[in-house]
């Protein structure tokens, strides 16, 4: 049940991110609406809560946990690049957007493989 909720929040989180970058490019005034400002914070908070719940339910901290550290570092990169993508303009916006998506994909691959080094 928690895993399903976590996956739903992942989809909502990436969808809201892509949507906000689109709005930042096409209709930046819409980003000032209260529900657009607050909604992603609620979704991402629930995403983190379900992620931590899964981490403790799965006893993943008792064994090798380098992959969890890698996910957290990539998450910080995703957040930072996401902020740049939403607040910047032009070429920088799209480079940050691409970088954030790379971080997102990396997090997903590490979550499935439990290997922070991917192909090594």
Structural domain count:
1
Structural class: mainly alpha
Q: How far apart are the termini?
A: 32 Å
Helix-strand pattern: HHHH
Helix content: over 70%
Radius of gyration: 15 Å
- Ranges where pLDDT stays below 50 over 5 or more residues in a row are none
Q: What's the overall geometry? A: globular
- Biggest sheet details: none
**Beta strands, count:** 0
**Oligomer kind:** single chain
Total number of helices: 4
Tell me the fraction of residues in β-strands, as a range.
under 5%
Output mean pLDDT.
89
Could you give the topology of this structure?
Elements: H1 2-26, H2 34-57, H3 66-87, H4 90-113
What keyword list fits this structure?
4 helices, mainly alpha
Give an overview of the whole structure:
With 120 residues, the chain is an all-alpha fold. It has one domain. Helices cover 79% and strands 0% of the residues.
Task: Briefly characterize the structure.
This protein has 120 residues and is mainly α. The chain contains 4 helices and no strands. It starts with a helix and ends in a 7-residue tail after the last helix.
């Amino acid at each position: 049940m928690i895993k399903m909720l976590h996956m739903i929040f992942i989809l909502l989180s990436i969808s809201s991110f892509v949507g906000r970058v689109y709005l930042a490019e096409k209709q930046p005034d819409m980003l000032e609406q209260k529900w657009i400002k607050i909604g992603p914070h609620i979704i991402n908070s629930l995403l983190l809560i379900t992620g931590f719940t899964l981490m403790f339910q799965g006893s993943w901290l008792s064994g090798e946990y380098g992959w969890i550290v890698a996910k957290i570092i990539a998450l910080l990169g995703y957040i930072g690049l996401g902020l740049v993508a939403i607040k910047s303009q032009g070429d920088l916006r799209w480079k940050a957007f691409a970088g954030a998506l790379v971080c997102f994909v990396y997090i997903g691959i590490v979550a499935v493989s439990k290997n922070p080094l991917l192909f090594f």
